[in-house]
Design goal:
The structure holds two protein chains of two kinds. By secondary structure, chain A is an all-alpha fold. Chain A has one domain: MetI-like fold. Helix content of chain A is 78%, strand content 0%. Chain A has ten helices and no strands. By secondary structure, chain B is an alpha/beta fold. In chain B, the strands form two sheets. A six-stranded mixed beta sheet of chain B has the order 6-7-8-3-9-10, sandwiched between helices. A four-stranded antiparallel beta sheet of chain B has the order 2-1-4-5, covered by helices on one side. In chain B, strand 1 and strand 2 form a beta hairpin. The longest helix of chain B has 16 residues, at 170-185. Chain B starts with a strand and ends with a helix. The chains are: A mainly alpha, B alpha/beta. The interface between A and B is medium-sized, with 19 and 24 residues.
Chain lengths: 258, 243
């Protein structure tokens, strides 16, 4: 077969049957990989299946923690972004310090530090709540930078125009900046939300019985590594892929030329 | 209208635009500011528009001074129609929504009254068919006419225009100038910064020559264009009217 068939250029798009063939090839590759991994594992699946309730509970907890952290970090991230743009130097510096410290250190270290050091010091023993807070605090630092770049992507002529027609600062944000910034931040925002869901897996190290922790427990009870961790991977994909698809949809919906 | 500048100074960083500028200008309908680029015309217009405050000195319009604090300046700006060279329409809003925003959000008109008013202005400007188009779908001349419609719809006390035709080709320039002449004829006071000398001559009832941060000359257009008294103004006119 001639490899040049697979070229897909704007002025010479690949024919339809080549596109179909591409999908078939990728599916075959995936199926081949799976069958190689799965060979002779039927009995183990039965053992793991008896623990499906553990998986289910873990997955639900992961969804709950992710949703809560998603909401909390969005609010906190937006406030941080505004603080980062504040003309009050102390507030702006504080926001910068926070953002750089949390973006500069590994999440795993933050989880260990805030749970075993900070939470222990203030006698805070609500593990799921601590997980949500740590995850939100971490994600908010990234969201703040995403929101800030979105706000700053709105040109200065737009701001002057908003001033010229007499909009107040709050109105300028509401009617001019946010609607335009929202469209610009959608792709990185979806990426960050997907990251947050995946990052919640690290909370397993402090014994929070979320999805990854559940899989680890099933594995240690059944000694079936593949059968414990393969559903784990699928479980996360089931959450992240829709977010990315939704962002594509919204992006198209809010599309306009500038 | 009477426009007075009393000891106005303005600098941007290290660049001094105006130093202790004082002048008094009276005009009926249209004051046109002309002069070389970088001479301070646009800055003067922005000062008059209350978009930037002077570092010192005061500006008086019909006897009353412009406020200094941002809140009062904002209230002052709501009575002005300001048009920029680059149109500055909001790209995420349709032509109609661009006009509605100041009417509803700033002047507090109800949506139905605002829509009625906006549509009547669009209609008059021959833009009714484009009301629901976003800026990217409009030509430069149409964009600038929508921008003027946005400024006119608030029924401003004064219209300020900063080189509204500089980014347009000759045909679109004519489109916009026709509109401005019409606005002038109905007696709406306007202050215009422009390089269109022919238009200035026919439309202005006062021409002010601004160069090097100074207001060197202000006269009726006939006498300014036929016999400018200041040597710099003479030089400027010779250069721009040569071809």
């Amino acid at each position: 077969m001639n490899a040049s068939l697979f070229f897909d250029r704007p002025n010479a798009p690949a024919p339809r049957w080549v596109r179909v063939l591409t999908v078939v090839l990728l599916a075959a590759l995936l199926a081949g990989g799976c069958s190689w991994l799965l060979a002779g594992s039927i009995s183990n699946w039965r053992a793991v299946w008896s623990y499906h309730e553990v998986f289910w509970q873990g997955w639900l907890l992961t969804i709950r923690i992710s949703l809560e952290a998603l909401a909390l970090s969005s609010v906190f991230g937006l406030l941080l972004a505004l603080a980062r743009r504040s003309t009050f130097l102390l507030l702006r510096s504080l926001a910068m310090l926070y953002i750089e410290l949390l973006r500069g250190s590994p999440l795993l270290v933050q989880i260990l530090f805030f749970w075993y050091v900070v939470a222990a010091k203030i006698d805070f023993d609500n593990l799921p709540a601590a997980g949500v807070l740590i995850l939100s605090g971490f994600s908010a630092a990234y969201l703040a930078e995403i929101f800030r770049s979105g706000i700053e992507s709105v040109g200065s002529s737009q701001l002057e125009s908003a001033r010229a027609i007499g909009l107040s600062r709050v109105q300028t944000y509401r009617f001019v900046i946010f609607p335009q910034a929202f469209r610009n931040v959608l792709p990185p925002l979806a990426g960050q939300f997907a990251s947050l869901i995946k990052d919640s897996s690290l909370l397993s190290v402090i014994g929070l019985s979320e999805f990854t922790h559940s899989a680890q427990q099933v594995n240690s009870s059944t000694y079936s590594t593949l059968e414990s961790y393969l559903p784990l991977g699928f479980g996360y994909l089931l959450l992240t892929l829709p977010i990315i698809a939704l962002s594509r949809l919204l992006e198209r919906r809010f599309h306009y030329e500038t | 209208m009477k426009l007075e500048l009393r000891g106005v100074s303005k600098r941007f960083g290290r660049q001094q635009i105006f130093e202790n500028l004082s002048a008094s200008l009276e005009f009926q309908h249209a004051l046109v500011l002309v002069g070389p680029s970088g001479g301070g015309k646009s800055t003067l217009l922005r000062l008059l528009a209350g978009l930037i405050p002077p570092d010192s000195g005061t500006i008086h319009l019909d006897g009353s001074p412009l406020p200094n604090d941002e809140a009062a300046l904002r209230a002052y700006r709501t009575h002005l129609g300001i048009v920029f060279q680059a149109y500055n329409l909001f790209p995420h809003l349709s032509a109609l929504e661009n006009i509605l925003l100041p009417l509803t959000a700033v002047l507090g008109l109800s949506r139905s009254i605002a829509t009625e008013r906006a549509m009547s202005v669009l209609d008059r400007f021959g833009l009714a068919d484009h009301a629901h188009k976003r800026p990217h779908a409009l030509s430069g001349g149409q964009l600038q006419r929508v921008a003027i419609a946005r400024a006119v719809a608030i029924q401003p006390k004064l219209l300020l225009l900063d080189e509204p035709t500089s980014a347009l080709d000759p045909e679109m320039t004519a489109e916009v100038l026709d509109l401005l002449a019409e606005l002038r004829d109905e007696g709406r006071p306007l202050i215009l910064v422009t390089h269109e000398m022919g238009f200035a001559r026919h439309t202005a009832d006062m021409v002010a020559f601004v160069s090097g941060g100074k207001l060197l000359e202000a006269r009726a257009p006939e006498s300014f264009f036929s016999s400018p008294s200041h040597p710099e103004a003479r030089q400027f006119l010779e250069r721009v009217l040569r071809y």
